[in-house]
Amino acid sequence: MVVAGDAIPAPALVGVATAAGVLIDLDHFLIARVRTGSWDAVRFCLTNPTAAVADQRRIFERGDVGVLSRLLSHLVIIGLVVPAAALWSVPLAALVGGVLYAHLVSDVAWDIWRLEQYADVPREELLQVLR
Fold it and tell me: Which controlled-vocabulary keywords does the entry list (predicted)?
């Protein structure tokens, strides 16, 4: 792939794709900050970095992020990042857009699968999780 007139090696493209797929999830920390009023999730990850990779369920309390808030935030990020990348390089924007699209689809599939876990949860608690 050529970006700004330079050929980009495949390992660098893999790095860009990986970074895009991972960094989009930093919005979870901002959403949790807005919803809870604290940076506890960030502090937890800084003091327990293995949790960010090995057991992400320990980072946020139920309702700290919210399914719909997270998906909306992801859509906003994708809508900003992909066109911005296209201004620099259309092939790069296609790569990043494809990765972020796959990330969003997998998030929706995961949320649909998890929805069955909330069958017996009271309505108000379920709304807290979804918002």
Answer: Membrane, Transmembrane, Transmembrane helix
Q: Which long-range contacts link 85-90 to residues 24+ away (Cβ below 8 Å)?
A: 88/3, 88/4, 89/1, 89/2, 89/3, 89/4
Contacts of 44-53 with C-beta under 8 Å, sequence gap 24+, read none
pTM: 0.82
Instruction: Compute the distance between CA of residue 110 and CA of residue 71 in angstroms, rounded to an integer.
Output: 12
Could you report the per-residue pLDDT of 28-67, keeping only the tens digit for each? 999 999 999 999 999 999 999 998 888 888 899 888 998 8
- Report domain extents, the chain: 8-130
pLDDT at 130 over 70: no
Q: How far is it, in rounded angstroms, from Cα 57 to Cα 65?
A: 12
